[in-house]
Amino acid sequence: GAVVSQHPSRVICKSGTSVKIECRSLDFQATTMFWYRQFPKQSLMLMATSNEGSKATYEQGVEKDKFLINHASLTLSTLTVTSAHPEDSSFYICSARDDREAGNTIYFGEGSWLTVV
Amino acid sequence: AQSVTQLGSHVSVSEGALVLLRCNYSSSVPPYLFWYVQYPNQGLQLLLKYTSAATLVKGINGFEAEFKKSETSFHLTKPSAHMSDAAEYFCAVSVDTGRRALTFGSGTRLQVQP
Predict the structure, then answer these.
(1) Under 8 Å between Cβ of B80 and B62
(2) Which of A13, A29, A35, A65 lies 20 to 30 A from B22 at CA?
(3) Is A106 within 8 Å of B107 when comparing Cβ atoms?
């Protein structure tokens, strides 16, 4: 099946610094990618929709200046957490829609654990 | 807007027993429905999807789900549970308009007892 790679899988950063998470579709093109956040033992909450070549669409309550999303190519989207604070510590998961497939099938990356100390 | 409700945050079955995880959806337009599985500290793996073709959908690892429009349900079943099935299961819905992002249920943790 389609593969989505996310990097890094774990990152620890100091409070006030920025950290970038990459999401790549390895064997398909993805015009649209999605970024989710998951707190322990909870469901996934959609943060933003990333569209290749255009600005991301953020969900209500998500700070676009804090969570910068860039979708520069059909296989890569990045999420940058700027001026990170401990409350930003979470599991971030990206997903990508396979442009070839009908039925809106979305594939997920392995997730990235962010710990802000 | 669409939504998903998963009944039962925890389900425990014995190895070899039937697995039934419940999912009900709400959508004003024809939905796409999905089941994903998440193992600890990992991303989500697609188990199966309903895309308006057959109402009974077969997925990986012996799982299947049946779309019942009259009941707005998409319950996940497996005839015989294995220990390796222990994980978190998420039902999700999307539609073919707008952002077409997935909306997830709250998840059901499946425990399999030996």
Answers:
(1) yes
(2) A35
(3) no
